[in-house]
Design brief:
It is a single chain. 0% of the residues lie in helices and 38% in strands. The chain is an all-beta fold and 89 residues long. It is globular, with a radius of gyration of 12 Å.
């Protein structure tokens, strides 16, 4: 994670699908009021990673561009959900 500073350096495995949100059943649970219960998901596809918004209220952003569908991520890309920014390492 890149932001917020309190979570900087935290890492998550992307071996399988990773759901992001405030709900307890998400693999990445965030305490962020701007994040929906089930906000977004990242999953492997054809040797790459794909991110998609799950109908969140505030949207999901890849490199500051709001997702309008599933998008392929590259190393170094920044994914923003609410006030939380993640970087694909």
């Amino acid at each position: 994670m890149v932001e917020p500073a309190a979570l900087q350096g935290r890492t998550y495995s992307l071996a399988d699908e990773l759901t992001i949100g405030r709900a307890a059943e998400c693999q990445m649970t965030l305490d962020d009021n701007f994040v929906s219960q089930k906000h977004a998901r990242v999953y492997p596809s054809g040797g790459n990673y794909v991110v998609e918004d799950l109908g969140s209220t505030n949207g999901t952003y890849l490199n500051r561009t709001r997702l309008s569908g599933a998008m392929t991520m590259q190393r170094g890309d920044r994914l923003q959900v609410g006030n939380t920014v993640l970087e694909l390492a």
